[in-house]
Amino acid sequence: MRIEVALRKALARNELSLHYQPKVDVELGTIVGAEALLRWQADGEDVYSPEEFIPVAEDCGLIVPIGEWALREACRQAETWTRLYRPLSVSVNVSALQFQHTRFYESLRTVLVETGLHPTLLELELTERTVMEGGDHIAELLRKIKSLGVALSLDDFGTGYCSLSYLKHFPIDILKIDRAFIRDVAWDNDSAAIVGAIVAMGRGMNKQVLAEGVESMEQATFLGAAGCSQMQGFLFGKPMTARDFEERISVVD
Ligand code: G
Ligand code: G
Ligand code: MN
Ligand code: NA
C-alpha cells in the first residue's frame, strides 16, 4: 500500500523514466536497438527497483497508464534516434494486464501515428504467461498487432511453464533466451544443450533468437558459434539513460 500511494505521486511528479539497454548484432558488429526499461528515480537515486514497484503497479492497475506512458516515450525516443542517426529498434515490455486491456490495440495504433515511429522498429516483449493465459482472443490480437508491422517477442523464454505447441499457434517473431540459461552456457553442458536447441528451433521456425544477460566474452563466443548473433547484456552495456545511449550510437561502434 505504501508503494502504491507513492507510485501515484511519482507518476504525477514525472519521477518515472526509461533506461535503455543496447541490443547488439555481433555479426554486424553494431548496436541494432535497445530495450526500454522503467526506472523510478528522485534526485538521480532509485526510489524502488522495477522488481519492487512493477508488481505493485500490476496489482493496483497503475501498470496500464504507466505502460502506456512507457510505450509512447520509447517510441518517441526511437523515432528521434532513427531520424538523427540510423534505424534503431526499441523493445518495450508489456504486462499481461496492460496487454489484455480493451484499449491496448487502439492506444498502440495511436502511439505509432502520433510518434511517427515506423512500426517495424517497435518490438513488444510479452511473457509466455501473457500469451498462454490471454484467452481466446489472444491469437487474433497478436495477428492484428503483427499486421501493423510491429514485432512480437517472448521474454524470459524457456522459464515459463511452457508447452512448445503454442509457438505453432501464435505469430511470435523473436525468442529472447532467458539469462538463466546464458549464465552457465560456457561451461555447463545442459545449459549449452538447451541454448543450442532453442537457437536451432528458432532458425527452423524462421524466428530471430536473442540471448539475454551476456556478461562475458566466453558466453558471446559460444553463442556466436551456436548461430545466435543477437545479444544483450552487461558485456555490451547496462541499461543507461537516453542521453548515455545516444552517446553510444553517435560514435562509430
Ligand atoms: O531492468 P531491470 O532488471 O531492473 O528490470 C526488472 C524487471 O522489470 C524485468 O523483468 C523487466 O521485464 C521489468 N520491466 C522493466 N521495465 C518494464 C516496463 O516498462 N513494463 C513492464 N511491464 N515491465 C518492465
Ligand atoms: O525480464 P527482462 O528481460 O525484461 O529483464 C531485464 C533485466 O535484466 C533488467 O533489469 C536488466 O538490468 C537485467 N540485465 C540485463 N543484462 C544483464 C546481464 O548481463 N546480467 C544480469 N545479471 N542482469 C542483466
Ligand atoms: Mn524484457
Ligand atoms: Na528477460
Automatic annotation (TrEMBL):
**What is this protein identified as?**
EAL domain-containing protein
Query: Domain EAL, which positions?
Result: 1-253
From which lineage does this chain's organism come? Bacteria, Pseudomonadati, Pseudomonadota, Gammaproteobacteria, Lysobacterales
In its UniProt entry, the species of origin is given as Luteibacter yeojuensis
